């Protein structure tokens, strides 16, 4: 599904954040990315959707090499990739429903009536997603009226609204308390299993990763230093 080969990123500052990283993620697999601060986790996630430009290597999503395609093609390919961020990045003045539908749109609309442009099946699907993440009753509330956990649930529904083939998740629980963090990780990983959706989750909380993912990849100084079942991590350390 996703095949990353010899991916290298050297920033303009001369920092090499990734050194020839090779990683295959098969369909339906949930990968937890761990490692100390500065290991290259964010850079890896951001190279996959090209928020960061790779210096060398391939990022094959199905038949497309995301690392080398031009910007027009990139816009199309990004629709295949759902993103869930640490800071939710919801549009505050829009409702929950409008935020979810903006995922289908692929960009943030700045006018209020944009939901009318969606066919009924898109609206219905958005309601199904809100139901799945437990926010049906909040559909018409403004995003800025929600708690942190609720906001991340909107982020999850929005990422899924675009019907992605791959989910990239960057520190989804960094702003949440431990109990809410577990709920959010459970929700993300359950949905990935239900939909056979492969995911890469950048998560610095190792016990949380171990509890919910199927495979752990450990990065250190831009290289993969661990790649195994979560249980094997205890033997390695
Ligand atoms: P992590 O997510 O594991 O904390 P990062 O990918 O953020 O690691 O960073 C990896 C390395 O790349 C670090 O040395 C960091 O300082 C460097 N780095 C990250 N972003 C930039 C940037 N925009 N410009 C220069 N160096 C960067
Ligand atoms: P994260 O929490 O994802 O690891 P950081 O807090 O390390 O991110 O970095 C925040 C922002 O600063 C990111 O956009 C990252 O690319 C950038 N950054 C990180 N390290 C450097 C660096 N050494 N030089 C320039 N920019 C950096």
TrEMBL record:
Listed GO MF terms: ATP binding
Highest taxon of the lineage: Bacteria
Keywords: ATP-binding, Cell membrane, Membrane, Nucleotide-binding, Translocase, Transport
Membrane topology: Peripheral membrane protein
Main localization category: membrane
Location in or out of the cell: Cell inner membrane
Domain ABC transporter, first and last residues per copy: 2-237
Protein name in the entry: Phosphonate ABC transporter ATP-binding protein
């Amino acid at each position: 599904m996703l095949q990353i080969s010899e991916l290298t990123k050297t920033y303009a500052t001369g920092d090499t954040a990734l050194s020839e990283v090779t990683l295959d993620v098969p369909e339906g697999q949930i990968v937890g990315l761990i490692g100390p601060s500065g290991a290259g986790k964010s850079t890896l996630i951001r190279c996959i959707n090209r928020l960061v430009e790779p210096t060398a290597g391939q990022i094959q999503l199905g038949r497309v090499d995301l690392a080398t395609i031009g910007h027009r093609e990139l816009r199309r390919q990004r629709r295949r990739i759902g993103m869930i961020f640490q800071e939710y990045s919801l549009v505050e003045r829009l409702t929950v429903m409008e935020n979810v539908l903006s995922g289908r749109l692929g960009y943030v609309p700045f006018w209020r009536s944009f939901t009318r442009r969606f066919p009924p099946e898109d609206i219905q699907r958005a309601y199904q997603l809100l139901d799945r993440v437990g926010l049906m009753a909040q559909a018409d509330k403004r995003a800025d009226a929600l708690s942190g956990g609720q906001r991340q649930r909107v982020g999850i529904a929005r990422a899924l609204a675009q019907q992605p083939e791959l989910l990239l998740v960057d520190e989804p629980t960094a702003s949440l308390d431990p109990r809410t963090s577990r709920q959010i990780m459970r929700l993300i990983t359950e949905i990935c299993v239900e939909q056979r959706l492969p995911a890469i989750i950048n998560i610095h909380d190792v016990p949380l990763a171990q509890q919910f993912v199927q495979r752990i990849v450990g990065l250190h100084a831009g290289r993969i230093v661990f790649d195994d079942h979560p249980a094997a991590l205890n033997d390695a350390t």
